[in-house]
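User: what does the whole thing look like in 3D?
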Amino acid sequence: AQSVTQLGSHVSVSEGALVLLRCNYSSSVPPYLFWYVQYPNQGLQLLLKYTTGATLVKGINGFEAEFKKSETSFHLTKPSAHMSDAAEYFCAVSDYQAGTALIFGKGTTLSVSS
Amino acid sequence: GAVVSQHPSWVICKSGTSVKIECRSLDFQATTMFWYRQFPKQSLMLMATSNEGSKATYEQGVEKDKFLINHASLTLSTLTVTSAHPEDSSFYICSAPPSGVVYEQYFGPGTRLTVT
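Assistant: Here's the predicted 3D structure for the full assembly of 230 residues, as structure tokens:
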């Protein structure tokens, strides 16, 4: 069975500081991995995804993530935090099968202080 | 990009009544749609998989007689919460992968249900 673990339910950074949100997965098959962002009372917005190919994936809003199979990790980073980055972030995993539901981590709340 | 809509975005109903939530794929067809529930400050939990033309598949612990799902067309799935109770108050989100596309999945904006 697939699962996702997000380390740290709450991460606080200062504006301009590095953002690092951790995600580890468990999957019996090569996974597809996703990061989503959710603002209060809104749906999910896809930040980036890893399917195949290059292990360093660049997404929107300056975020990127690196798939490390040996560490079963897919950590999300951004070099310089902005106030508008404050939100809830979810890591999710899916297998190769078309139309498979995503399995989500518990989420990490990112706070950005000025 | 592909768009998934939900209606209504926010609904308040009295305990014991039923409420229907619609999920539509606006510019693509989806043979499968997913329904998630999200309680405050928690993650999304898959409730059921909606399949066009066949019965929905429910996750363990989800009452199929309480949460009725109908996938009437390739662009519409509905979730009806029957005999709603305050504990059903939650944020309901649907998602849909375009048919035949392996990994793309698009999420609706969510429906906030409050049962009084």
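In plain terms: Chain A touches chain B at residues 32, 36, 41-44, 49, 51, 90, 94, 96-99, 101-107 (CB under 8 Å). Residues 7 and 22 of chain A are 5 Å apart (CA to CA).
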